[in-house]
């Protein structure tokens, strides 16, 4: 149905034509319809049609188009007539338009001036088919004179379509943090079944495409849900949706604006542990190892409960602390930049691995696992001279055999044996060493050195080399053996010679000299010398006798000067004579020893000056087979050494008898005198006569009794607060090197 409404109005105004404003979207244009008609008394000017029309029409929907026409008349005329025709034409046939509208107009009489004649024509249209149609509005005026009709036209486009619809736009959840995944959804529908050419989420001004929730948009007419999910930065957000079916664009909310939300807070960012280290990477059980790691937290959260060190999979129950020293980003208390934590500790022997973990209260961090450190035992080396024995006498010109063995808890492939004599100097390297030395009282020294491990051990033995047919000239010597004293003690040295010996009687000029550390301190015919020792360490006192300017006697005392703190304190010690045993009996000896500085004391057991491989404060051995189970007298020695290298050697004797021999009770007439002195010695002084009593070469020390008293007092007041018991290790635990034979320990 077509409906045409015409509104005609005549407005007499006294304003210029330029003051007339046309409707938006139409340029200002006009034509002179009648210029100078009827003798130039008036003109007619027709403007372009001004159109008002809907933005779109649904299919089958009716609409209206308003066409506004204005005619301006100038000049004087008593009467003016014209005809006006208005038509709406569809160029694409998608819009049904009504027939043209024609009407007549006239100007009333007027005496000069201008007037405007305007009309508004409303035409009904119908949407026939989907698509875009171009419409043209034609306005034709006929002034009925020789000029003829004049036409002005305006065009516009009109879309025939059912626009899509967006509804139920929402987000979920409403709040969260930066680790939360937020989902935005909206329902899209289109009456024509048109898929969206685009459908977007506009979030904080940025566009994000949406996709159908089920992966295929097959329910467009009734509605399909589109959405997307994403994590968002911290802050307040807003959004809306936009969509188009290719012809019309729609949005949600329909009225415009944004939906507020979601509100996002910053999520916890877990800490990070980096650069796990241990320094040094190798060492022994006395080494201090420092473990360190850097803790970083982007939220500046401190580690709750501290940093945990896991050593070999087990948590170390000690607190790690921030490194100290000059201020730096690693100890400024700002965890965003990283803080360096460390822990220093000693470790048991073995190969270790470690890692760290920590928490900021919300998240955990763990470092990568790292290998190390490798911790070895504290290497030790102890050498013992096997040949010659202490005090042996040889004659010049004979070839002597020097042999020694050592024990160590590590393999020493580069171990070198070096031999020297106090008279003859360096004798050579090797084991055994066969050589001849000049006559005299020799202090033989064997040194075993491992350059790779920096280990060195020495042992000493005194021998006498005589000219053929001569016998020793010395009857007595005090001290009788090498001794160990404390700083500041005075030692008296004296010698008694056999003055009836023919060698001395025949000498026309007999003289003597005392040397201290190689420097002459006494000369003449006095056979004694006293001096005090102030410097700690090993000192040598030499006694030389000359007859007719020839050296006929040379004796050396080795004096070890120690600090009282280096003493080894003895507790309960068995009798020196352990008694008699039969083969198959078990010999068992226990000793007590302490150290005023609580240093570890290592005890090594030897029989007949050969290591048994046994360690600890108790020696237990079945006398069944081997050289130590043979009939006869044997010497059991305990070598005590503390971590300062101070050592003490205790000697015990036992006898193996025939099985049918009556046993004598231990501790008989041969027991050591209770006044036997107790003192300390170093490893270098461990070459005393094995049969010299419970303290070996320490017998005759003038300060021994006082040291024993001090030791007993310290035991009473608790200085010696524990008995040092070293764990017994298998006999294979000590490495024994012997060039002549390999001992086999069997029980």
Can you give keywords for this protein?
747 residues, mainly beta, Immunoglobulin-like, 6 domains, seven-stranded antiparallel beta sheet, six-stranded mixed beta sheet, 3 helices, rod-shaped, disordered N terminus, disordered C terminus
Structure description:
This protein is mainly β and 747 residues long. It has 6 domains: 4-160, Sandwich (Immunoglobulin-like); 165-265, Immunoglobulin-like (Sandwich), CATH 2.60.40.10; 272-376, Immunoglobulin-like, CATH 2.60.40; 381-466, Sandwich (Immunoglobulin-like), CATH 2.60.40.10; 475-560, Sandwich (Immunoglobulin-like); 564-737, Immunoglobulins (Immunoglobulin-like). It has 3 helices and 59 strands. Strands 1, 2, 3, 4, 6, 8 and 10 form a 7-stranded antiparallel sheet that branches. Strands 14, 16, 17, 20, 21 and 22 form a 6-stranded mixed sheet that branches. Strands 24, 26, 27, 30, 31 and 32 form a 6-stranded mixed sheet that branches. Strand 11 (131-142) and strand 12 (150-160) form a beta hairpin. The relative contact order is 0.07. The model is unreliable at 1-32, 34-42 and 660-747 (pLDDT under 50).
């Amino acid at each position: 149905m077509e409906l045409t409404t015409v509104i005609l109005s005549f407005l007499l105004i006294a304003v210029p034509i330029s003051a007339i404003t046309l409707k938006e979207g139409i340029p200002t244009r006009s034509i002179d319809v009648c210029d100078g008609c009827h003798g130039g008394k008036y003109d007619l000017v027709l403007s372009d049609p001004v159109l008002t029309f809907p933005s779109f029409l649904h299919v089958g929907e009716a609409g209206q188009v308003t066409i506004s026409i204005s005619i301006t008349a100038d000049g004087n005329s008593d009467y003016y007539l014209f005809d006006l025709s208005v038509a709406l034409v569809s160029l694409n046939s998608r819009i049904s338009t009504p027939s043209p509208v024609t009407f007549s107009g006239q100007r009333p009489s007027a005496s000069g001036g201008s007037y405007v004649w305007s009309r508004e024509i409303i035409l009904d249209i119908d949407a026939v088919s989907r698509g875009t149609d171009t419409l043209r509005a034609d306005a034709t005026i006929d002034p009925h004179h020789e000029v003829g009709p004049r036409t002005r036209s305006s065009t516009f486009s009109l879309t025939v379509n059912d626009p899509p619809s967006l509804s139920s736009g929402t987000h979920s959840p409403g709040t969260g943090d930066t680790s939360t995944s937020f989902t935005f959804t909206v329902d899209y529908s289109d009456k024509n079944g048109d898929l969206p050419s685009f459908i977007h989420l506009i979030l904080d001004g940025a566009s994000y495409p949406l996709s159908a929730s089920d992966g295929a948009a097959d329910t467009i007419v009734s509605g399909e849900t589109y959405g997307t999910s994403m994590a968002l930065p911290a802050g307040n957000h807003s959004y809306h949706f936009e969509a188009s079916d290719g012809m019309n664009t729609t949005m949600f909310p329909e009225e415009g604006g944004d939906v507020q939300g979601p509100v996002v807070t910053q999520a916890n960012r877990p800490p990070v542990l980096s650069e796990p280290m241990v320094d040094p990477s190798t060492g022994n059980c006395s080494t201090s190892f420092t473990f360190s790691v850097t803790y970083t937290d982007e939220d500046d959260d401190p580690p709750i409960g501290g940093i945990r060190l896991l050593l070999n999979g087990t948590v170390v129950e000690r607190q790690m602390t921030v490194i100290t020293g000059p201020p730096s980003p690693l100890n400024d208390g700002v965890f965003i930049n990283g803080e360096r934590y460390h822990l220093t500790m000693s470790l048991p022997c073995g190969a270790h691995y470690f890692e760290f973990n920590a928490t900021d209260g919300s998240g955990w961090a763990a470092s990568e696992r790292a290998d190390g450190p490798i911790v070895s035992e504290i290497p030790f080396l102890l050498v013992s001279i096997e040949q010659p024995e202490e005090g042996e006498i040889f004659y010049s010109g004979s070839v002597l055999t020097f042999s020694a063995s050592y024990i160590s808890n590590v393999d020493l492939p580069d171990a070198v044996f070096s031999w020297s004599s106090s008279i003859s100097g360096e004798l050579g390297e090797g084991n055994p060493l066969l050589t001849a030395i000049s006559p005299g009282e020799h202090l033989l020294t064997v040194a075993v050195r491992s350059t790779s491990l920096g280990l060195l051990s020495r042992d000493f033995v005194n021998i006498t080399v005589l000219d053929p047919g001569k016998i020793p000239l010395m009857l007595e010597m005090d001290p009788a053996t090498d001794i160990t004293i404390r700083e500041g003690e005075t030692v008296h040295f004296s010698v008694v010679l056999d003055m009836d010996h023919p060698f001395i009687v025949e000498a026309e000029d007999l003289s003597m000299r005392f040397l201290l550390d190689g420097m002459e301190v006494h000369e003449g015919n006095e056979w004694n010398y006293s001096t005090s020792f102030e410097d700690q360490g090993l000192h040598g006192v030499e006694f030389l006798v000359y007859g007719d300017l020839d050296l006929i006697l040379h004796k050396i005392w080795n004096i070890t000067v120690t600090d009282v703190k280096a003493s080894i304190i003895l507790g309960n010690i068995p009798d020196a004579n352990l008694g008699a045993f039969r083969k198959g009996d078990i010999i068992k000896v226990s000793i007590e020893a302490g150290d005023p500085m609580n240093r570890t004391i290592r005890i090594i057991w030897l029989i007949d000056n050969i290591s048994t491989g046994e360690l600890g404060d108790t020696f237990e051995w079945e006398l069944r087979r081997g050289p130590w189970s043979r009939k006869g007298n044997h010497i059991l020695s305990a070598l005590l050494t503390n971590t300062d290298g101070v050592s003490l050697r205790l000697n015990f004797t036992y006898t193996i008898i025939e099985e049918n021999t009556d046993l004598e009770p231990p501790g008989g007439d041969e027991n050591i005198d209770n006044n036997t002195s107790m003192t300390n010695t170093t490893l270098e002084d461990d070459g005393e006569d094995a049969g010299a009593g419970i303290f070996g070469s320490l017998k005759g020390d003038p300060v021994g009794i006082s040291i024993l008293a001090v030791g007993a007092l310290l035991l009473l007041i608790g200085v010696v607060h524990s008995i040092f018991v070293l764990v017994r290790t298998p006999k294979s635990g000590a490495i024994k090197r012997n060039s002549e034979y390999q001992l086999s320990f069997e029980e």
